Amino acid sequence: MKHAPFIAVEGPIGAGKTTLATMLASELELPVIREIVEENPYLDKFYQNMDDWSFQLEMFFLCNRYKQLEDTVNQYIDRGKPVISDYHIYKNLIFGERTLKGTKRDKYREIYHVLTDDLPKPDIILYIRANLDTLMARIAKRGRPFEEEISPAYMQQLIEDYDDAMASLAVREPSTVIVTIDGNQVDFVENKEDFAAIAEHLKELMT
Ligand SMILES: Nc1ncnc2c1ncn2[C@@H]1O[C@H](COP(=O)(O)OP(=O)(O)OP(=O)(O)O)[C@@H](O)[C@H]1O
Ligand SMILES: Nc1nc(=O)c2ncn([C@H]3C[C@H](O)[C@@H](CO)O3)c2[nH]1
To answer: Which stretches make up the Deoxynucleoside kinase domain (predicted)?
Structure first.
């Protein structure tokens, strides 16, 4: 890799993105960018009534991530410093296409492209895949009250949306390296060897 890489960890809700990004940042001594969750004023309302709150929620996520991406570019990418993030801004489109309908979806898609098309995107994506049972169990174990409303049907759609999105990204942006991690089999939390293998692979990709 010629330049310092921009790395993103991705996967559906509860896949372990923040956990893995934080562990890798510590192991490889990289700065880490984490999603803003607790201060989000719309998540609770959104999970209670998706149709009423999806536009506000998606715009909130988009504006926050746009600001974080701008800061990441200024602080790290433009200065040639590697950085790892617990999301890829493309997830805005994955969620937006699923939760929005009609003209709002069209407008949101346009705003997404206007804001992000000219900004640098991650060079390496660590994509954690996991099945419905694994994800629902992890969401329950984490115990965020507002996520009690998440339905298995919504999660199953997101699992499929993520698979489709990663496949289409691989075709559209062949220079992006996508490493798929089987989150049902590979346990980077409990199993030191599993984590070491991921960290080693990432180190190799970064040189
Ligand atoms: N490999 C794993 N084995 C066991 N528990 C895990 C594993 N990965 C993550 N967890 C647990 O699952 C929960 C979700 O993990 P985490 O918050 O990192 O997911 P996330 O993908 O960042 O979620 P979100 O999409 O909501 O941002 C946490 O309680 C975490 O400790
Ligand atoms: N609708 C929607 N759009 C997004 O861009 C998005 N990004 C994250 N989330 C949800 C998943 C977790 O519950 C919680 C923390 O990741 O927020 C999102 N929901």
So the answer is: 7-206
